[in-house]
Amino acid sequence: MSISNASPRVLWLQVWGLAAVQGAIALTWVIYNLYLLKLLTDFGFPKTIATGLLIVENILAAVMEPLMGALSDQAQRWVGTRFPFISVGVVLASALFISIPAFLVFGSPTATIRWVLPVLMVAWALAMTVFRSPALSLLGRYAFGTNLPQAASILTLVGGLTGAMGPLANQFILSLGPIVTFSIGSFTLLVAAVALRSVNPNSSVQQETSESSLSPQSSSSWRQISIPRLALVFGAGVGVALGFRLMMQTFPQILDSQVPGANKGLIIGGIFIALAVTAIPAGKLASRLGNRQAMAYGLVAMAGFMGLMVFTRNGAIASGIAIALGATFSLVSNGTIPFALSMVPPDKAGLGTGIYFSGGAVASSVFGALFGQPETLSPIVGVLIGAAAFLAAGLFVASSGKLQAAK
């Protein structure tokens, strides 16, 4: 049963519980991406299979994210909670995550048996989609619309700090070995789910409204869903994800060619640190400006700063650009889920969130298929395409203001 709590504008305890889940998701993906190539090659697979595996995972995620989100909407309507999707998905993902290195220890690299490893990897990626959209769509219950970017800033803060571990602590993570590292990731997922469960995830800042009081037979909200709105959410997801992927691939290439002595890990890690540090101020700014306007400004700025990457000539300039990229991306990251939630009826929050993540998964598939090998794309072309992707996402977000959000 939903528990109404109308007095606070943001349920900070629940937001922090949700941020724990976001941090655990980010941590497991950092671990997975660091170990993916090593695990596959150690078992006799060619390096190229890693790219193919990620493409397959993202294609499946493009379908699973909105599907799981929509099913969790139905669960919210019928049983009053989305948490069954979260708990089942987390337990399944945790078990599959630890089974990946366990198979390396107990499995056999024979021609047939070794294919169990990529199957386990794909199964884990699918398990992650079971709970991500249902979990993060809960953000809409924990803050009023104008305060959603502030609430989302906590998720950005935690996600940024966790994401920084990739470039800043990759050698330490790899030195722990797959068994220890994957065990930590698996345990963190379980602890995050318990933390969210302990703070009453069904709490809401709003009086019982459409999401909690609609009868199971009610279907009017489906008629309120606008395909153009969903298309804008999907397009924004594609643009943001593609731009970010190209930025993270192109910037290190530019540093290698133009600033050979630069500490790439520290500079790239600076993007995530700046993202985390500026998340809360950016959330407050977005609450004042309006989320769409703040996101649009952030995306235009991202395109501009990405263009400036080609003028990097020394470590100081590179560090300044990295900080600027992280700071402006905080406006974007804070706004993504609130933007998706604003484009669907309240009781379709899971669907809206899933559509956004579906766009991101499609972008990742396209990125892997076309630009997965760094040598296939020159830095200049990568910068141009990435900047165009950010501008396109900004156009989708800005044009959504012409469509009145579903209520």
What features would you describe in this structure?
With 407 residues, this protein is an all-alpha fold. The chain has one domain (3-212, 221-402): MFS general substrate transporter like domains (Growth Hormone, Chain: A). It is 77% helix and 1% strand. It contains 15 helices and two strands. It has a two-stranded parallel sheet. The longest helix has 32 residues, at 48-79.
Shape: globular
* Strand order in the sheet with the most strands: 1-2
How many strand segments? Answer: 2
Percent of residues in beta strands? Answer: under 5%
CATH superfamily: MFS general substrate transporter like domains
Mean pLDDT: 91
Count structural domains.
Answer: 1
Main sheet record: 2 strands, parallel
- How far apart are the termini? 22 Å
Radius of gyration: 21 Å
**What is the overall number of helices?**
15
The CATH topology, please?
Answer: Growth Hormone, Chain: A
How would you spell out the order of helices and strands?
EHHHHHHHEHHHHHHHH
Give the CATH architecture.
Up-down Bundle
Fraction of residues in helices?
Answer: over 70%
The first-level CATH class name: Mainly Alpha
Helix/sheet category: mainly alpha
**Unreliable residue runs:** 1-7, 207-220
